[in-house]
Write a structure and sequence with these properties.
- By secondary structure, this protein is mainly α.
- The protein has two domains: 377 residues, no CATH class; 36 residues.
- Helix content is 60%, strand content 3%.
- It contains 19 helices and three strands.
- Strands 1-3-2 form a three-stranded mixed β-sheet, with helices on one face.
- The longest helix is centred in the middle third of the chain and has 23 residues.
- The protein is globular.
- The N and C termini lie far apart (79 Å).
């Protein structure tokens, strides 16, 4: 390792040390008793969450990050990525320091974007993330699947799928403190202990949490120089969550109900951003999802923000944007037969926008090729066929096709 490489590694290690206590979701989580008290009052009063201590001093951490950023003086690709990590980490610190205030929303939008963000790669300049969410929410519901697995049975199925690829480097455990069905850490998947799961949900969690979130974290941790790829480059959340949904889709483990629920979260964030309070959002969600599940969905919107409206947590708005961008990234790369670009994307946690830089660094020997790849990439002949199918049908206008067959049906009916 050259002296320049040692300096990069030293900066990365220092960044990782500063980042370690900054746990966004854990710092925003509500205790389960908040929902219990809220439901006892039949949703007539706003919930009263309290947040745990941050575990770090925001002012001190910001000073450390600013000092680290000053040490990054070069103009090469690797140092540009590290400056982005510093900026993102400072935004995360400011977000957590402003829990429960209007400023929280501003920092959330800086980190995760807004439901009404547009797609830079779309030929339709007016295409908003919110439009995709509305479309997903309008789709027909899936046929009802029965949740027959308890948490331990679900965990066992996740282990059986994850272990052949990740081996012992991914632990699957139960947790009683989750709002989501499951959550991934750098080396583990936590499954909500009191939840019930369908067999398809268990498979989806294995591919989303294990063979995407943990897999990219493990590849990042194995980097000899850019160890920050384990915690994530600037803007990584969009592609991490989008890549997780793409993994569910490419392995055949997603249904319209999944898309609908993701859309409902984004639509709820938009309502809250426009001033709806927790009670308004909860009642609306409860009319379709039931009171208890509506609590969990509404928590995701309001955790850390202002319950009276106007300042939600916008993280869940990344799912539509991330799904579309990751899938289009794969389509574009595979249409050019550029498999190295896809492999670079697996090398750690990053945005699709940073994959070309990571590929260049991989060719320079600064970034190692990924140790692990997802199941859908290992068996990629069906993936390539799916991309051929997708690119082929994209040549047709769906509106034109619908009108063509509608006219035929009208003609047949008149005869």
């Amino acid at each position: 390792m050259t002296r320049a490489h040692e300096s990069l590694r030293s900066l990365c290690d220092a960044l990782c040390r500063v980042q370690r206590p900054i746990r966004i979701i854990r710092s925003l989580a509500w205790d389960r008793s908040v929902h219990e008290r809220f439901l006892l009052k039949r949703g007539t009063e706003l919930p009263q969450p309290s947040y745990p201590p941050l575990g770090f001093d925001p002012a001190k951490t910001l000073r450390e990050l600013k000092d680290l950023r000053k040490r990054i003086r070069g103009e090469n690709g690797a140092e540009g990525l590290l400056r982005g990590v510093c900026d993102q980490t400072m935004a995360a610190v400011r977000l957590l320091a402003s829990r429960g205030t209007k400023d929280f929303y501003r920092h959330s939008v800086e980190l995760f974007g807004h439901p009404r963000d547009e797609f830079a790669e779309s030929s339709n300049e007016d295409l908003e993330n919110l439009e995709i969410a509305r479309y997903w929410a309008s789709r027909p519901r899936a046929r009802k699947e029965r949740a027959t697995l308890d948490a331990e049975q679900c965990a066992a199925r996740i282990r059986a799928i994850v272990r052949p690829i990740l081996g012992e480097s991914c632990e699957v455990k139960l947790s009683s403190g989750l709002a989501a069905f499951a959550a991934a850490g750098p080396r583990s998947i936590a499954v909500r202990a009191d939840a019930k799961f369908t067999p398809r949900q268990a498979r989806a969690l294995a591919h989303h949490e294990g063979l995407w979130h943990v897999l990219t974290a493990r590849n990042g941790a194995a980097q000899p120089i850019l160890s920050v790829l384990s915690s994530g480059l600037r803007g990584y959340t969009e592609s991490q969550e989008g890549g997780g949904i793409v993994s569910e889709y490419l392995t055949g483990n997603v249904t319209n109900d999944r898309f609908i629920e993701l859309a409902e979260r984004t639509l709820a964030i938009d309502r809250a951003a426009r001033g709806a309070d927790y009670l308004d959002v909860w009642r609306d969600l409860a009319s379709r999802w039931g009171e208890e599940k509506a609590c969990h969905l509404a928590e995701r919107v309001f955790r850390g923000g202002v319950l009276t409206g106007g300042a939600p947590f916008t993280k869940d708005a990344v799912y539509q944007r991330g799904y579309c961008r990751v899938y289009n990234f794969l389509r574009a790369a595979l249409d050019r037969s550029d498999e190295d670009l896809v492999l670079a994307f697996f090398a750690g946690k990053m945005s699709v926008d940073d994959a070309p830089t990571i590929r260049a660094l991989m060719h320079e020997g600064i970034v190692a090729r990924p140790k692990f790849v997802p199941e859908w990439w290992r068996r990629r002949d069906p993936l390539l066929a799916q991309m051929t199918h997708s690119v082929t049908l994209n040549r047709f206008s769906m509106m034109g096709v619908k009108e063509f067959y509608a006219e035929r049906h009208r003609s047949a009916a008149s005869r």
